[in-house]
Specification:
It is a single chain. The protein is α+β, with helices and mostly antiparallel strands. Helix content is 40%, strand content 12%. Strand 1 and strand 2 form a beta hairpin. Helix 2 (33-44) crosses helix 14, helix 11 (235-244) packs across helix 14 and helix 24 packs across helix 25 (594-600). The longest helix has 24 residues, at 2-25. The radius of gyration is 28 Å and the shape is globular.
Amino acid sequence: MRILFTIIALLMFAGSAEAAARSDLFPQPPEISPAVNFWTRVYTEINTGEGFIHDLRHLDVVYEVLKLPKNSSRKARSRAMEKAKDRYAKILRSLAKGKRSNLTAEAARVLALWPEGVSKKTLRNAARQLRFQQGQANKFRDGLIRSGAWMPHIRKTLAERGLPHEIAALPHVESSFNPEAASHAGAAGLWQFTRSTGRRFMRIDHVVDQRRDPYMSTIAAAQLLEQNYATLGHWPLAMTAYNHGVAGMRRAVRRLKTHRIDTIIERYRSRTFGFASRNFYPAFLAAVRVTDNANAYFGHLDHAIPVETTTVKVPEYLHVNTVGSVFDIDAATLKRYNPALKKPVWTGKKYVPRGFELRLPTSFLSGDPEIILANIPQDKRFVKQQRDRYHKVRRGDTLSTIATRYGIRLTELVGFNGLNRRKPIYPGQRIQLPGTDVPTRQITPITRQTIPDDGEYVVRRGDSIHRITQRFGVDEKTLLALNPMRNRHQLEIGQVLRLMPVVTDQPETVVVALAEPETLEPKAASPTMTITRLNEPRPQPQDVVEELDENVLAATQVTLSADPSDYTAAGDETIEVQARETLGHYADWLGVPTQRLRNLNHMGFGEHVVIGERLRLEFSRVDDETFEQRRLAYHQELQERFFDQYHIEGTDTHIVRRGESIWTMSREKYHVPVWLLRQYNPDLTLEQMHPGTLVKIPKLTRVTNGEAG
């Protein structure tokens, strides 16, 4: 008996030691415990048919569990939410006036949810901080069951990279372990990678999307989190960066001069550090808690059993029917184990690409899969992919006009290219055309029209800037100056455009810089023109976003979340210069002459900006948010164009030798763009390029026409 007690005591000590070690990696400060408890309740107490009406900032204040109308439209459910929030806002505004006696039972209940002596100001703010959070208990339970199929692979991947095993709970937060999950932000798969982030680690194109493969995306997630931790040095920050981005978390640490996650959650203010980013780490801790105690919350669950599989590299391009035939596997089974292959492969418009790692259930195999593939008849093997057809974007093109010209549905064109309708296309961009040979419809010729008396035009289906200027004989530069817009290549039906200036009592003079060509070299000051337009109200950011039928934490990832470069403007109106940026770019994004920026920074003519240095800007024409959006759009487009041509196949390590610089490594030795080199070495500066410095070099594989698919 004494021996048994000793063994139990040792096991308890070992468990305590393990818990202590884990708490060191993923601490839960008391300040964030209310948020962790809130998400635990979301994951275990309420299903998707109901939700909490709660305070945005104080997550321990939950006013009601609201049951949503069954089998109702999204609009009807939104009305029910708004009605409930309006009721509580009225009560809180009344309490904020100081009334504390002769309260109704409901008002007394609401007041009791707050600490004794709560201030009027807090209650006034609470009336504006009402939020609805949909329940996730049924999704979490289903996710626990599904997770069994991939958990051995996830844990093995994490262990091989020396990463904490708790990370295995992250897909509960992201997708409820649903490999088919997709968010309105374009994130997809078990780990909810956005396209821009995923392309750093996986193949994502019109034939293969490895985000949807639980095995491939798990390896990519481990690589991303490993890089996050290497950059930030603290797991709470690395986990939050999975949602908010490495650059955002580095900026938070720099501004607040702390690595404490509770301080950052409470005090950090940024337009992009909203509800989802503030709650990402607490939600992750809640997911770990629920996963570790699943039986206590959900009772006994029969987890999915992992299926033993084998992978084999496809040696040549093969029709999917050929693959199914030689392995005697039906298309549905083959598709279930190879979700990364996209629709064109399954419809026969594209071959299974050469080098693709085909996953096969071992129970179906009757021999060595490599030998089986090698015995495929020669006439069934192909040295090239089926040819793609492209449309090269010209000035004035829109996705709508391109789809119309080739007789393609707009949704098919967008989905085939992995595009976002809100994202601009640009002249010279190649748009792939699904399953077409020749144009079937031509664009209707444009007839010259007279400018309306009020000088305004309402955009119709098929319109573009180029077509409108032709129709009314308006100069394109003038039209764009009269209608400042973030995306000149995509108009919205019903949008009102001004075709001629308006004379006002108090006009605002705006200097618009004409765009300069993209270049690494310094340019002369941009030509300018002066126009007159009406003053416009500055858009106000919204912090509270209602989410129905979608996970808010996975749906609001920041643009270029894996890019550690800082694209924001600091409070002192300075920025850090990034690769592929010039004074001309800044002038264009700000709407000011290039020379004004030269004068502001005491720069001589011909002097160029230096990567990593800080530059002072002028925000007299646009606000910092608009500037940042334009800057991000430029870099996102730049990176998308690069990843259309290259895949990253791991990294090498380079030891800097005497005389080497970031430029020689980028341009002469490895032919890697400076911006990508800095992404893989976020703390690398020009001053650190001394002999012996270790630099990670991404290995690039060029995508040729024959292998693009």
